[in-house]
Amino acid sequence: MTVFLIVGLPGAGKTTRARELEAERSALRLTPDEWQMAVFDRDSPTRWRSAERAAHRDRLEGKLIEIGLRAADLGLDVVLDFGFWGTDERSALRWIAAARGLRTEVVYLPIGYDEQRRRITARSGGDPAQFEMSDAELRQWHTRFQAPDVDELRDGTIPAVPAGHASWAAWARARWPSWRPGQG
Ligand SMILES: Nc1ncnc2c1ncn2[C@@H]1O[C@H](COP(=O)(O)OP(=O)(O)O)[C@@H](O)[C@H]1O
Ligand SMILES: [Mg+2]
User: Fold this and answer.
1) What digits encode the pLDDT tens for the residues 106-117?
2) What's a Pfam family this protein contains (predicted)?
């Protein structure tokens, strides 16, 4: 089974690609934005970026990872439509998946600022349920985003665990506090 890690900034076309994979592969698509909007449906368009929501988001993602890994164990391809801005996030999931005999594929959707701004503005179209994103935020996120390297895209060697963590599983437990390895 393959676990697809969909990587890219907002507006890059991640969910569009994830839906294509869902249809092509009869895969289980897990898109945390949909869960966040469904659970916190009364949020203002800017509330999503608060520290409290960021923590909720991490906890949602941890449970979606559990479900995704469990589904892959049961024989489904899985699409994690998370964005995965950090190399370490991708390395952790590549390692965790490999340890249970699952393939991973990093699907990277690059996007430049101008096209990104156009798409996000067109997508929101005044819909207050969409997350609001300012020009300054979009520009800042480009500097934070860590694009996958050739090794990641070819499913090459997984880098060593960052100092201070006993294993990639321990790193993942710190990154996604709700994730319980035993449950998925
Ligand atoms: N390859 C593409 N070319 C042009 N527009 C696209 C492309 N992929 C997605 N879009 C459009 O851009 C917007 C953002 O796409 P989406 O898949 O929601 O991005 P993300 O999930 O990365 O935020 C949507 O309105 C979508 O229809
Ligand atoms: Mg999306």
Assistant:
1) 999 999 999 999
2) AAA_33
Which of 17, 36, 79, 119 to mutate to test ligand 1, by most ligand atoms within 8 A of the CB atom?
Answer: 119
Q: What are phi and psi of 3, to 5 degrees?
A: -105, 115
Domain residues for the domain of 84 are 2-183
CA 123–ligand 1 middle distance (angstroms):
8
Q: What share of the chain is helix, strand, coil (3-state, %, to 5)?
A: 50, 10, 35
CATH of the domain at 22: 3.40.50.300
DSSP characters for 6-58? EE--TTSSHHHHHHHHHHHHTPEEE-HHHHHHHHTTT--TTGGGSHHHHHHHH
pLDDT class for 184, splitting at 50, 70, 90? low
Per-residue pLDDT tens over the stretch 138-151:
999 999 999 999 99
Nearest atom of ligand 1 to the alpha carbon of 9: 22
Looking from the CA of residue 111, the nearest atom of ligand 1 is: 22
Residue with tokens 């070819």: 154
Residue pointed to by tokens 């950090």: 86
- Mean pLDDT (the chain) is 95
